[in-house]
Amino acid sequence: MRPVAVIGIGKTAFGAFPDRDLRSLAVEAAGHALSDASVPARDVQAFHLGNFAGPSFVRQNHLAPYVGMAAGLGKIPCTRFENACASSGTAFFHGWQSVASGLYDCVLVGGVEKMTSQTTARVTEILAGAGDMAGEGLAGATFPALFAMIARRHMHEYGTTREQLASVAVKNHANGAKNPLAHMRKVITLEQALAGKPVSSPLTVYDCSLISDGAAAVVLVPLEHAPRFHSRFVRVLGVAQTSDCVALDQKPTLTAFDSVRAAGEQAYAMAGLGPQNVEVAELHDCFTIAEIIASEDLGFVEKGDGGPFAEQGCTGIQGRLPINASGGLKSKGHPVGATGVGQICDIVMQIRGDAGERQVKRNRIGLAQNLGGSGATCVVTILGAA
Amino acid sequence: MTQNGIVYTETTVYSPPEQYADQAPYQIAIIDLNGGGRRTVRIAGGDAVHIADRVQFVEETGGVPYYSKVAIEQAPEPSGSNP
């Protein structure tokens, strides 16, 4: 395996865009990434596209060539990757693999989702398909319900409080308000978050990420080629993809994700680093409890200490370990298939020092964690300055 | 799969999927079955359940298993009632 670098990033704004279709969003992000990388579309050798549910949300299949040809790519392999909310993290892992292995010298990895053309009830039903539809889905478990049951158990075992969950939402909204590409640029108070409309107890609307449209893309090349393309290329220091059972009730514990622990351990080992070396992180806060648990599973704090860590301000932009300086899925938005690559774009921006008002001080090593379903897929990526 | 069990975790769903839009709010739980293993079930109308409550099988409707809380004074059902 040879080292790999990210030489270009591109994102659309995340939000509700009734006048934009899936393809135009994906093409826009791809165009930004190729332009940032100074790579002509014709030089891309493979295109990996993460997308969760285009067929359900917008009745379009065959998405990778559908987007790739519109983006001006050649007649190269264009392939869609689907792993629920970790679809584009998965596309990134396989894109990295194909460059690291020597198969390709230039791979475009994208992610896209167009969700807001459906009602919330329909979106809820489509998202439930990332769980076990014959078991938990049939019983009436939505995704908020699955994470609500995780939250209840975490509160029961570790004394995690509603206030600690809400503090994650308050922090991510404060960060997202500083992000020009964020879906909901609105500062909220702890009182507002606690008094939110219930979605699935104990989670309120402020514990849940947003239903968004959006796309993101990155360009990968071998590290040795990177300086030819971009003066501030970013190294892929470690990356891992792991799996676990899809049904939540088949997992031995609900308060930790084995897939996250394993992906973290593998990515740290590849990078020759540990959690103490991570200076900035984007964690998959599909729900506030998910950010708290990820901070534990990735070793930033001891098991059960994720709630106090967030509540004490340690994860703010000025904190000991800034988490979701972008606003996270909570405020930046969660166009499911775009999220994994979007997180990687956000970490690259931090490492380059291009994050504007959201810029963290210590920015040489960043980590992105992308979760699929209730932990059936996890991709952890560690990136470092050149 | 009609074994009784103990509530491992639970939630009340206020924002349902399209399929169950007319049923919300409703409570679901993951229960530890007395014979081993876990299952996601619907809590039948009546008392809400909490972690560690004992629950008993009520019925299966449309493939969905319904359970209800066992009152504390009531003797628990023998486990593994499904032969």
What attributes characterize this protein structure?
heterodimer, A: 386 residues, alpha/beta, nine-stranded mixed beta sheet, 18% strand, B: mainly beta, five-stranded mixed beta barrel, globular
Query: What is the structural class of chain B?
Result: mainly beta
Structural category of chain A is alpha/beta
> How many strands, what sense, and barrel or not for the largest sheet of chain A?
9 strands, mixed
Approximate shape of chain A: globular
H/I helix tally of chain B: 0
> Approximately how much beta-strand content do the residues of chain B carry?
35-45%
Fraction of residues in β-strands of chain A: 15-25%
End-to-end distance of chain B: 10 Å
What would your notes on this structure say?
Chain A has 386 residues and is α/β, with parallel strands linked by helices. Chain A contains 15 helices and 11 strands. In chain A, the strands form 2 sheets. In chain A, strands 3-2-4-7-1-8-11-10-9 form a 9-stranded mixed sheet, sandwiched between helices. In chain A, a hairpin with a 4-residue loop joins strand 10 and strand 11 (377-385). In chain A, helix 1 crosses helix 3 and helix 8 crosses helix 12 (288-297). Chain B is an all-beta fold. Chain B is 0% helix and 45% strand. In chain B, strands 1-2-3-5-4 form a 5-stranded mixed β-barrel. In chain B, strand 2 and strand 3 form a beta hairpin. Chains A and B meet through helix 5, helix 6, helix 7 and strand 5 of A and strand 1, strand 2 and strand 3 of B.
